Structures are given as C-alpha cells and as structure tokens.
Amino acid sequence: MSATGQDRSSRWQDIQKGLQFIQSTLPFPGPQEQYEVFIQSLVRNLFGEGNDVFLEGEWTRSVELYTEALNIAEYAESEDIIISQDLKEKLYANRAASYLNIGLHDQALEDSEKALQLNESNYRALYRKARCLKEMGRHQEAYEVVAKCSMAVPQDTRVIEMTQELAKMLGLKIRKAYVRSKLSNSDMSVPTIPPIGMGFCTSDGTFMQDYPPQLDLAKNPLADTHEFKQACSSCYIKTGPGVLDYAYHPEDHKCKKDLLLGRTKHSELITWKLIRPRPTKNQYMGPYYICKDVAMGQECRYLGHCTFAYCQEEIDVWTLERKGFICRENLCDPHGFKPKINLTVPKILQEHHGIFMFLCEVCFDHKPRIISKTNKDIPGLCSHPVTKHVFEEKKCLVHYLRDKTIRYSKIRPYFPHCQMDLCRHEVRYGCQREDFCFYAHSLIELKVWMMQSEKGITHEGIVQESQKYWNMDAELPPALRRFGPSNLKMQFVCAQCWRNGQVSEPDKNKKYCSAKARHPWSKERRVVLVSSIERKKWTTVRCLPTKKPIPAQFEICLHVAAGKKCQYIGNCSFAHSTEERDLWTFMKDNNIADMEQLYEMWLQSQKPGWSEESSSATRDNGKQIHMPTDYAEEVAGNHCWLCGKNCNSDKQWQQHITSEKHKERVFNSEDDQNCWQYRFPTGTFRVCERFLKGTCTEEELCKLAHGDEELKEWKDRREFLLMKLAKARKDHLIAPNDNDFGKYSFLLKDIK
C-alpha cells in the first residue's frame, strides 16, 4: 500500500474511533486541553476525508462527511470548544461545491450564503452562489453576485463567461475589459489566484484541482491482493451442483491453460474460483453485481449466458479489464507489464461501426441539442438556420451511428489528467459536470482516448482515417466487400453438394446450383460456410438457436471443447466452433433472426453501392424501412439523444417530448432494472404494519413497503429517478409546464 493510502487508512480509523467516543457518555481520559485538540482533530480529519472522496467523484459521500464535520463543530461549541471560523467557512463552501455537482441547487445556495456570512470576500462561495441563482432562473440576482466575484478575480475565464452570459440575458451592454501590462518579477510579486470553477480548498488553504490523481498502470494492480492460475477442464473439475462447486487438481497432464482461476490472498476461503470472460456484447456500463441466484446458493437460471458475476474475484477482474488497466493473459505474472492495446481507427469502427465526423460544438451543446454540420452555401459557417457559427473554431469530434435509431457520441479532447474509465454518473442519470468531467462519457470516447494516449493522433487525423476506411471499403469489388464478422469470410453453397465433398455456388439466376446435377437453390437446400483468418478452413454454421431469452454471449459446447462429439439429442444451443459462435453473435447484434434473412443481406452486399451503413436500416422482417427522420441530420434541428430522433420543426419537437414513449425513456432503461431487487415504488413511503404482523394478504398489490429494506430501496429509487428528471429538464427534453408523468408522477410529491 502506498504512503498516501496508509495515511488515509489511519485517518479513517481515527475518525471511526473519534465518532464512537463522542457518541458515548464516557469521560475523556485527559485534561480539557487534550479534549479540545481531540475534537478539533476529528473535524479536520472529516474535512480531509471529504476532500479526498470529492476528488474521486463521490459527491454524495463528501456531503455526508462535510455535514458530519459541521455537526461536530456545532457540538463542540456546546462544549465550549472553539472551531476556527476559517475551517467552518471552507466546510460550507466545499459542501456547496458537492451539492452543485449533485444538482441540489437550493442546498448549495444555502451553504454558499453561510460561507459568505463567515467571510464575505470568499470569491469561490460568490461564484457558486451565482451558479445556483442562475440555475434557479434568478438571473438578476445571479448577475449582481457574479459582478462582485468579477471584481475579486477579474481575469478568471469562468467568471467572465458567466458575467457575459447573464449580461446578454438581461440585455446589458458588454464592455471590453482593460488589461494591464505585465510587470517583471523584480518589479512586483503578485500571488496567483487559481481558477475557481474546478477545485476546492484544503484545511491549510491549499487550492486543489478536483480531478483524480494519475495512476501507475505499469504493473498488475491486483498483484498485492489476488493470485491467479491458468487451468483447463481436466484439472478444474466440477464437484457439486452449484456454479461455484469446483475443485482444482494440479495433476500431471498436458494442460490447455484455457481457463483463468483466481482467489483473494489472506482469505479464509482458499479455493480457486473461475474467472469467466467479461461480457462485452451488452450495452450495460454500470458496476458489476453478483448473480442473485448464486448469492442465494442456488443454480444460475442462465448458466453459460449469465452476464452477472459469480464471485467477487470476477467483479475485481472485470472492472479493471473494462478500464483497460489489466490484461488477463498477464495476470498469472504478479508483475506483468500492461501491454499496449494497439487500437486504431479501423479497429474501433469494425467493432462499433458508424463514422467519425465534425459537428458544430455550440449547436451540439445547446439545450436541446441541435445537429449542425458545415453550411453548403458558406463552407466556413455551420448549417444553423439562424445563428451561423464559425465552424473551424467551434467544431467538435462526434461518432455518428445510424442503427435502429440515430446516435451521436461526442468525443471530447484528450488531456493527460483524463481517467481511462467510464463515468458512473453519466451511464446512470447523466453527469452534471458534462464536458468538465475527467471520465469518459461513452465507450467509444474511452477507446478514442486510449488510442490517443498511445498514438497521439489528432481529431483531424481520426476523421481522415475514418473517411479513408469507408472509402477503401466502397472501392472493393462486390465479391470482396466486407459483410459479417470482421474475422470471417462467408459464402453460401449447395448443401447436397457440400455433403458430397463439393463446393457449388448458385447460378446467375439463383434457381439452381452450378453443379452438373443442378440441385434446386432454395433455403432448405443451401448452407452457409465461414472461414476464419486463423484456421483458414471452411466450416458449416447451424441455424441460430431459438432459445429464449437469447443469451448475451454464446459459449462453446463443453463436449466439442473437449475434442468429443456433442452428446446432446436435438439442436444444441451451444456453438460447435469459434466460427459458429462469432457468426451467431454477429446475427444477434444485428437483429438477424434466421439464415434466410442473413442470405438476403449477404446478397445485398454483393451488389454495387452496398455499404454497411445502409444495411443497418434492415429490421427483423428483413425489409429495409426508411423513416422520414432517418436523414434529418442534413437539416439543423433539435435532436433527442434519449430516443435518437431528429425533429425539424418546433411542432414536431413538442409532439415528441410530450409523447408517452419519450417520457418512459426519460425514466426507464433496460440497464436500470439490474440495480433493483424489490417492487417499483407505489408513492406511499411507509412500512406496512400488517406485513410486520404477518397478516398482509395483498402481497404484490399492497401499496405499502414490505419491510425496511424495501422502503430504503424505494427512497433510493426515488432519488435516482429525480436525478434523471433533473437531467431531462436541464437538457430541455421535458416541456417546462409538463407534470404528467403517469406512474412516475409520485416524484413531484413530498415524502410524508
């Protein structure tokens, strides 16, 4: 453990001991002077811990620690112990910063005013008060406050931007500022005032930037806490019915080393646990959880397809794998160096599809979002019909993907302090810090940052590589155009000829095969062959399994993996080759229901003018459907990033944001369902007394909570939904006066 980690660990132990003591009635074992030092030290420790968790983005936790420190300071006054005004001022100012990041503007305003009561010249508190008033729509008051702040720090860019923005709202004339000539160090020594928008103060008055510290990624971060071993199905043997009932037998054999085992060091349980491959095909980007069935000691209902972890060791590895901090091939070497990921633009586009392009950043960041490209008539300006911005100065990199909906993902510039991990706030209810967040806001942005950190490629270079990639694909002959998984070649042949050892393709009319026997060319008489780059051998692929629900990740059949013949009677739902698994995964990800639809899309790929982007409009019935809004990005209009819909008029926009389908998307997503264990809140936040007595007969229909745990989850879920609603209102995805949210209307009522 590092020295910083040890200091923080010992500080947290001091905090816990201190809180335990002051909550008791025991006399302090020492004179009054030592008791005063003890209380003052406890307040400073809570303040320091609050600052550290603030740096890590745990703003709710930092609020709790600052609040605890302020409560103890109030308690100290009742004990005639003096807590410095300077420390209390910083506690209020820093808690206001935490409240602002969470989006609780009323509480942030109150704390800013309390900090100013203690020190009216605290310009950070002034700035935060102005931000709160601005977000609450009190623009005149916000301007008066930020004007005072501007007098204290006239050169701060954030203060200047807010002052100018509020002045425009109020119709005031913006005056050009006088800039003094710089004096040499020998003439005058002026203390530098740090920028106020992105940091906070420590107990000693030091200003801290609120981005997380850089991590040393050279070595395996799990080397001190975990140990790993490679095994195979011959030495890691199942011993019971549960998914964790396995035993490792290191006997002399030719181990394939195709399984990764892990366990925690210095743990009571010394058994090795299987670390499965991380699920990569679903869109879930939140924290990993233990499978509920496994946690209750039962057999997993989705064995082989479950996207939840089976043990804590699996969560630890998956979490760091997704961040790009470890490579599982090097885990068995305790000091294995982190290999280069070697990402390129073509590799990213092969996995995520779409294209990189430039859009007007001012329009893109507008509330609601506006999609604006270069103006066709005036190339130097954006295509906004009213406010035409200078495109080269205001452009931003965007990844554009047209699948079932239109999706734009902004790629912010990469800086050394950017963290190679997904922002947990953004993936759940939207990050309040937006462009000032140091974590990636999408998986595509994370991969671009990783590529830039290794190769140093610019945004202009990324767009050029993207265009080059698609131009090369369009120039290929029809027979060689890429369709299907990037690592596979594919062709359809006559099934009867294939059984006889021949490869016969259809004739020109697609009625018979090209063999002398002229077998009819129908869906029952053709088979798909695939060949991987590694094996270079043509292999047949069976139909996609019809098992419901469709697994998020296909696995290889255990019999086939062991080099034996599959013993399953019927259509085995496990893949019989890596090629079959890759093609099944491709079909599932692209909503291709059967081989007939795959064949139709393959035929389309052989025609001139085909591109993968056009094939993404294919739906489950195999037909290509074009909606009027599919090409709406050519016209600058409002864009709903939740639904992926473009609207070219205010009337169309109002109809969309007031629709029931859109409101459901505001509050609900598939990933959110993985986080909750109990029923959806009914709006009555009270425990059912009949349930406590065991006499409640309504069960699921009861409007009251069945236990304290369900009540706690209901309150947590309410706060989570309020965050989503606040984000939607901030992005203007909800009409200002719209309070009709159906089953979510209880959010507007106070908890009784």
UniProtKB/TrEMBL annotation:
Residues 422-444, 551-579, 682-709 form the C3H1-type domain. It holds the Pfam family zf-C2H2_jaz. GO terms for molecular function: miRNA binding; zinc ion binding. One of its GO terms (biological process) is miRNA processing. TPR repeats lie at residues 89-122. A zinc finger (C3H1-type) spans 422-444, 551-579, 682-709. This is Zinc finger CCCH-type containing 7A. Keywords: Metal-binding, TPR repeat, Zinc, Zinc-finger.
